[in-house]
Amino acid sequence: MVRHRAFVLLAERFHSVDHRMQMRLSAHILELYREFLPSAHAYANFSSSLKPGEQKPFQLEDLPDLQRFMKASILGSDWQSELVEPADYPALLDGIAAQFPEGIFVVRDEKGRPLAFCAGLWLHALSMSLLERYAPGCRQMLGEEAFSLHELPLEAADTIFVLLSAVNSEHSLYRPEELGALLMQQWLVHMTRGLRGILAAADPQLNALLSVLGFQACGKVTGFAGIELTTWELDFRQSAFDQWIQRIIRQTETAAAQPALPRENDHRLSIERNEMKQMLERLFELDKLEELPVMRRFCWSGMQVRATIQEILADTHQAGPLTAMEKEILIAGYLRKDRNKSELAASFHMSRATFYRHMRLAEQHLAYVLGDRLRQTEVVFNKNI
């Protein structure tokens, strides 16, 4: 029960601190969660208290070690992407290292030597050709999003498509599954900076592990040689972190068979970004607004929700994490509605892709603020009773 309460408090604090502190909070959450992770698994042993060395970006001198890990991994038929032909793994790793080294994440020992890594591509206009060359199945995974990614500037990229990973399976002190757990934990902490990760897997054990770690299954795709893969996504682009924590809380409650806690109402009062978008789109059509499932969940009238949203957007004080610019974007896009998306993007001096990204972020942040306002309202209501 104490651990559950700690999860809730850490999740509430997450949006009010800087990126460095956010990574510390997420690392602490994973440490609290470790007891519920598998202690014996083909890919990862989370019972180990193994700690990484200092986090440093990939360097070209790391490449021989990473290729050695990869070669041993290929022999063991483990830790790889079925979207890519096995014979292409070394060339793909070389290509990422040469053209997009920021896509390689390395876990090191206390002396700075690589212990494990995962490699992928940040999705943007310059990287899509390399992704489609080695992983043609990505088109099926990305769907319509692939078209906008072909036009997305590098600086706007916020999604990494993971293709390869391997550990030092010949390490004298640590077993491969211990290093696998360390890699997964450190990569998760890295992603909480506000990023989205995508990958595909066919192995039932790996799929089960990804689910435990809070990944969301997004459907099936076909890999090389007709292998059926499950597509997984982990989205930490700002307020989605709350949803990840809520999944962890639900899983720990199930594992511990705990009765419902008073703060469980927080789950009911969370708002998804797509729900926030629907509410904004129907803000001035009260009948349609009140038909939304999210409205019935809150037991609010359309008039109350409209007034609360307008109050939040009109407030000159910043309601973190919703910024002043994001308020302007939402006001222009949903309240004034006097320009199309291209004109709106131009008025904010952004490309359409960048504007859409900021719009989605603004919707997420407004959902967080509105959910917080709902929680406060319920607390006041309960006190009055």
- Class computed from helices, strands and strand pairing: alpha+beta
Number of strands: 6
What is the topology, as strand order, of the major beta sheet? 1-2-3-4-6-5
| General form | globular
Describe the sheet with the most strands.
Answer: 6 strands, mixed
Radius of gyration: 22 Å
End-to-end Cα distance: 26 Å
Number of continuous helical runs: 18
Characterise this structure.
The protein contains 18 helices and six strands. It has helices spanning 2-14, 19-33, 63-75, 89-99, 128-134, 138-142, 145-149, 176-191, 204-212, 240-256, 265-268, 273-281, 286-290, 293-298, 302-314, 324-336, 341-347, 352-384; strands at residues 104-108, 114-122, 159-167, 196-201, 216-222, 228-235. It has a six-stranded mixed β-sheet, with helices on both faces. Helix 2 packs antiparallel against helix 8 (176-191) and helix 12 (273-281) packs across helix 18 (352-384). The longest helix has 33 residues, at 352-384.
